[in-house]
Amino acid sequence: MPFGKMGASTPITTDAIWNLLKQIPDPEVPAINIVELGVVRDVIFSEDGSGVEVVMTPTYSGCPAMKVMEDDVKEKLSAEGLEVKIKIIYKPAWTTDWMSEETKAKLKAYGISPPPKLTFEHLHPLSTVKNAEVMCPFCDSTNTTLTSQFGSTACKALHFCDSCHQPFELFKCH
Amino acid sequence: METNIALYKYCVRIADTSLILAQRMCEWCGHGPVLEEDIAMSNMGLDLIGQARGFYSYAAKLEGKGRTEDDIAYFRNEREFLNRCLVEQPNTDFAYTMMRSFLHGCLSYLQFRTLVKSKDDTIAGLSEKALKEMTYHVRHASEWIIRLGDGTDVSHQKIKSALENLWQFTDELFEMDEVDQTLIKSGIACDLSLLRAEWDQMVNEVLAKAKLVRPTAGGYQSKGGFNGAHTEHLGHLLSEMQYLPRAYPDAIW
To answer: What CA–CA distance (Å, rounded) separates B161 from B170?
Structure first.
């Protein structure tokens, strides 16, 4: 059992580490935390329990928030007296399918349309299959139009609701 | 050829192609025809920089001389860059930019789709990530090509001119040498010649929808970018991209 700064009386469990990580918000979408986002893949203690390795995977190859998230993880866990190492893996590649329904509900409440389920249309660039219906996070109408596949961050697309006339962002299915 | 030397070169070729295209895409930042496209092009540039970083880091590790991804990107001259010549061609206008992204993107998409099954785990992992991004990039570019080609006389003329001028850099996308052969044998690299038919099919499909005529075979075709023989444009691009780290080699950011 690993031990943190409080010494032998309060061993830090893997669950406790995960709970600490859940306190770190996604720097670009602070409504959800980095565990809900799905970028934290594993937590591994070193043999003597003095250190912990956090295995992470980027959302997009060039996501500028990745460095911020790594720094946040280091800061959070170092404060517990742990030696922190970050390991970046690329496989399996991050997918929005890892997001739970609860997380998607949080995104919607925050004003971002949650990602639809990954289907074939997302997997082939020239697929002519109709895009999945995108729901406006404000009025729930599916009478919406794509403005741009690329939004304010790598993970979002711009849409417009033709019912309530609000522009909104869609967390892209990836 | 030794596998590790081949693998280093293979990764640098992929990374250089991504980085140079990224630099071109980012030149649009603040100059896009509309805000959404300005953002889109920087976004795609960012994806490409991310892909380049992954492959450079792996190349640096394979080389084992303590160099970093930045050392490889910023401290080599044009003859040492191994990107395909297509991606160094100037932006010229929006139509050129979309056509360049499309012609390169279709191959890049097919290549990463194959490399996902590479016997080299790092390459397979980086490719899985890149594949998803290239799917988006190709979709974006293909939609614009159709819109411009099947649009007004002016937009048709621009995209037609882009196609006809950039076509000379398409055979080069499929060029291979002993680096590829060595790695194909060990199940690491992908045989580009096997992707040609599907690339043709993708390109033909979009060109037909865009009411564009595919240039006839037999015209001049550029060669050798992947071994350092470049067009004049690369040197100018590098002089801008590498200025800061060359002028201030100890700068950190």
So the answer is: 15
CATH of range B3-214+230-247; options 1.10.10.10, 3.10.129.10, 1.20.1260.10, 3.30.43.10: 1.20.1260.10
Answer yes or no: do A154 and B46 touch at CB < 8 A: yes
| Per-position pLDDT tens, chain B of length 253 | 899 999 999 999 999 999 999 999 999 999 999 999 999 999 999 999 999 999 999 999 999 999 999 999 999 999 999 999 999 999 999 999 999 999 999 999 999 999 999 999 999 999 999 999 999 999 999 999 999 999 999 999 999 999 999 999 999 999 999 999 999 999 999 999 999 999 999 999 999 999 999 999 889 999 999 999 999 999 999 999 999 999 998 888 7
All structural domains of chain A with their residue ranges: 14-88, 97-171
Q: Token pair of B181, please?
A: 């052969």
Residue B106 token pair: 């279709």
- d(CA B130, CA B104) in angstroms, rounded, equals 14
Name which CATH class applies to A14-88.
Answer: alpha beta
* H-assigned helices in chain B: 3-26, 35-63, 69-74, 94-115, 121-149, 153-166, 178-185, 196-209, 233-241, 243-247
Cα–Cα dist A2/A52, whole Å: 9
Our CA-based measurement puts residue B187 at a distance from the nearest CA of chain A, in whole angstroms, of 18
Q: Do A149 and B139 touch (CB under 8 A)?
A: yes
Chain B residues contacting A via beta carbons under 8 Å: 36-37, 39-40, 43-44, 46-51, 53-54, 105-106, 109, 121-122, 124-126, 128-140, 142, 202, 205-206
CA–centroid distance for A82 within its chain: 24
Query: Across the interface, do A62 and B49 touch by the CB < 8 Å criterion?
Result: yes
